[in-house]
Specification:
With 107 residues, the protein is mainly alpha-helical. It folds into two domains: 39 residues; 67 residues. Helices cover 77% and strands 0% of the residues. It holds the Pfam family DUF1232. This is DUF1232 domain-containing protein. Its main location: membrane. InterPro entries: DUF1232 (IPR010652).
Length: 107
């Protein structure tokens, strides 16, 4: 193998290792997100929307070809937006439960 071949193989190895490291980081963040979603008291629909968006990101079938990540970004942004609204509503419910006198029912 000449110098160019070794350089190309070295570059491929570095790229594969970088992708593997990136995948491990994303996996750790997803596990942490799962724990946070489990403990947050959010409705099931918000959680399902988030995980469906994550599944769409890793799915090999896209609305637009892969070099164009606009559909992936759009799906993830919509899921995060709905998750944010659900989290705000859950926080509001928890806050109103804290200030309600004992024995009174929530409407």
């Amino acid at each position: 193998m000449d110098g160019r071949g070794r350089l190309l193989v070295g570059l491929v190895v570095v790229l594969v290792l970088a992708m593997l490291l990136g995948a491990i980081v994303v996996l750790v963040k997803l596990v942490r997100a799962r724990r946070l979603l489990k403990d947050a008291g959010l409705p099931r629909s918000g959680k399902v929307t988030f995980w469906a968006a994550v599944a769409y990101l890793v799915c090999p079938v896209d609305l637009l070809p892969d070099p164009i990540y606009l559909d992936d970004i759009g799906v993830l942004m919509l899921a995060l937006r709905s998750l944010h609204k659900a989290a705000a509503a859950a926080a509001e419910r928890r806050e109103s439960d804290l200030y309600r006198p004992p024995g009174r029912q929530r409407w």
